[in-house]
Amino acid sequence: MFSGDAILMALFLVAVVNISRYVSTLKTLLVVMRDCDPLLYQQVDGRGFFSSQGNVNKQIRLFHYIRSQQYHKHHDELFMAKCDKVRKLFVLASTSLMVFLVSIFVVAYLGI
What we know:
Helices cover 76% and strands 0% of the residues. The chain contains 4 helices and no strands. The chain has helices at 4-36, 38-43, 56-67, 77-110. It starts with a helix and ends with a helix. The mean pLDDT is 89.
């Protein structure tokens, strides 16, 4: 039988790996975006995206751009592939994080 601590540690590691994959792919998307669509890069605050002075409204604009799949109208195949990968990794990372958070409460409630 597995202990609750081992389950939580495994789920935590999975969540951290998925979140780091998401952030890494998002950074590569911004690099590709800078080359193929400079106007969109400026609209989402590409230079300051990961800085402490980053504009949250512009970051949310990129989130809505990817969520609504507006990138399917773009001309660059690499850009569309990166956007699709960012979208899939966001879903995977957020799901794994939610599973981890729910499992904390389940382990605490059941006393495993």
